[in-house]
Structure formats: C-alpha cells, structure tokens
Amino acid sequence: MKFTEATVRTTSEASDLVAEFAREEGALGAYIIDRNDLDRRGAAAQWDTIDEDTLRAMPEDALVRAVFAPERADGINALRGRLDALLKESFGLDVGPLSLETRELDDSDWANAWKQYFKPFRVGKRLVIKPSWEPYASAPSDIVLELDPGMAFGTGTHETTALCLELLEDVVQEGDTALDVGTGSGILAIAAAMLGAKRIIAVDQDPDAVKVARENIERNALSEHIRALAADLLEGLDQSADTRAYVIGRADLVIANILADVIIRLAPSAFTALRTGGRIVASGIIKDRVKDVREAFSQTGFIIERERSSGEWVAMVARKG
Predict the structure, then answer these.
(1) Are residues 210 and 93 both part of a single domain?
(2) More exposed terminus of the chain, fewer Cβ within 10 Å: N or C?
(3) Does residue 165 share a domain with residue 112?
(4) What pLDDT, in 10s, does the model give residues 125-180?
(5) Residues 179 and 293 in one domain
C-alpha cells in the first residue's frame, strides 16, 4: 500500500503542537526529528550512544513527519489550513516557516525511517530511555525503560515529555495510583510504574496509540500494574466498573502531557479524580499560556507547588487542596 508522508519544517518549540495537529487530522502517526533534542542538554550528558554521522545527518530545522493512509489524504489539506492559521496566530511561539512537503512511500519505509535518530538517553537522575532495538549497558542505579513508540507520540527526547519524566522522579510515591491522560507511547505511565506507582490507568483517544502503549507496557513487564484504554481525557472512566475495580477510590496522581487548552479543559475532571492531597503533573504548556493554566488550576481548587521550564515549554505540579 502507498502512503503519503507530509513533512513540516518548523522549530523545536512548535514541533509538538504541529505533530498533534497532524494526529488530529487523521495521520497514522507523527514523529519529530530535532537535533536540539541532542544539543539542548549536550550529547555527552543525555545520549549514551550517539555517533557524529547521525548528528550531521539531522536537519537544522525541526521536522515533523506525519504519515497518512490513502483514505485520509484529505487530512493533509486540513493540516495545511491549521498551519496557515498558526502562522497568523502563534500565541508568541516561534513556529518557523511551517512549510509542508509531501511524498509517497511504502509502509515498510515509514515504519522504520525515524529509528536512526532514536538512541538510548538519560532523563533526570535515574531514568534511561532505551529503544527496544538498541543495546545499552546499564549502571546499577539506572531505571531502564525500554520503548518502541511506533508511530505514537512520546520518545522522551522532547522538552515536554522530558519535563514530565523529571517531575515524576520527584513526586511519585511507592504504591501510588495514577491516571495518565494522553498516554501516546505509554512512556509516562511506564516511568511512573518503574518509580513505584502500583496501579495506573493510561488513556488515549487514538486506538493506535493505545495499541502501542499496551505493547510497551508488556515489553517492560508491567501489564499487572498498567492498563491502557481508549478514552477522551477522563470522560466515562468513573462509570467504568473495570476502572473502579482497578484504581480504588480517588487517584494519587494525574499525569497530563498534552496542550494548554486541553489541560484547562481537563482541570475539573482531574480535580474530581484525585484524592485530597493528590497531584497533577501537567506539561505541554507554552510559556505564553502558563498564566491561563495557573488561573484554571486555581479556580478549580488546585494549589500550584512547583514549575519547571525548558526552552519555550513549562511543566507544573499542582496539588488538590
């Protein structure tokens, strides 16, 4: 079968947003090629196995590559429209040229093309993200998370996911129950379980992402601790007998690596889902929207405990008072 690959030339700051647009317009998946993921923390600090040829091959701009099946070719035109709108109103975000090019390719091509840029790397104090096809010699203190994101969002290299991983190291307590909203590849749910969370519900509105998350959960031998489900945010989860039996009572933690507008919409249901004293770890917030998210959390009843930023992105931890 012939697929169409749309490549958008953008910036590190806007790449997550562009990838989300592509998925919303029907892309089978989207991945980001960004040399700043290497340069931001320094190759020696973050990447354990990276060669100079790979670094030189990476483009100067961030590229978002999204793959569309033949029956969803109209999604490319819809994506063009959203990029044009973003150029006119970018909320202070440097979005770059947002040029879009397309090419035809076979399924075997798009399934593997991005893998050359994904190498084992370290996040925070102990977490190591290891692609399932790459070797890695771990240190005794390492927590190694093996990942094959397929075409789902979430390898941990981008600022939004990395910020979440760093904050999870700080806030996850042994035995926590958690809800991971917009799980993508499952990376944050898996990290939370490896850090001590006992029961986690991971949800995504994309059935393909749920499939990838389940595969990664099984790959890390965590099926007993994490369940991946298709759902729109937290809608309907409290009515699910299966969910009620799995996460007893209110959760200790909500994880949301999504976008500011979605976090604002999520705030009331996250507050309801949490026990008193429970926390939400939220990322994917452009700096210009931090005030809006703070206000939404405050109006809902959350108390913001800490914020952390990287580039143009901010993540925060808020507690249910």
Answers:
(1) no
(2) N
(3) no
(4) 999 998 888 888 888 999 999 988 665 566 666 788 889 999 999 999 999 999 99
(5) yes
The tokens for 83 are: 């990029």
H or E segment to which residue 90 belongs: none
Mean pLDDT score, 289-315:
95
0.85 cut: is pTM over it?
no
The CA radius of gyration of the chain, in Å to the nearest whole number, is 19
Pick from 165, 157, 85, 88: nearest CA to 124: 165
Indicate the pLDDT class of residue 296, thresholds 50, 70 and 90: very high
CATH number, domain containing residue 240: 3.40.50.150
- Domain assignment present for residue 71? The answer is yes
User: What are 51-61's pLDDT values in tens digits?
Assistant: 445 445 555 67
**Mapping DSSP to helix (H, G, I), strand (E, B) and coil, where does residue 275 land?**
strand
- Cβ atoms 153, 23 nearer than 8 A: yes
129 pairs with which residues across the strands? 121, 145
User: Is position 179 within any domain?
Assistant: yes
Q: Which of these three, 56, 85, 116, is where a domain ends?
A: 116
Give the ranges where 89-158 is alpha helix by DSSP (H): 107-112
CA 171 to chain centre: 18
Q: Cα–Cα distance between 247 and 238 in angstroms, integer?
A: 10
CA distance 237 to 208: 19
pLDDT in tens, 205-239: 888 889 989 999 999 999 999 999 998 888 877 65
Number of separate domains in the chain? 2
Averaged pLDDT for residues 66-82: 89
Q: Provide the Cα torsion 100, 12, 189, 275; round to 10°.
A: -110
Expressed as residue numbers, the domain containing 43 is 2-116
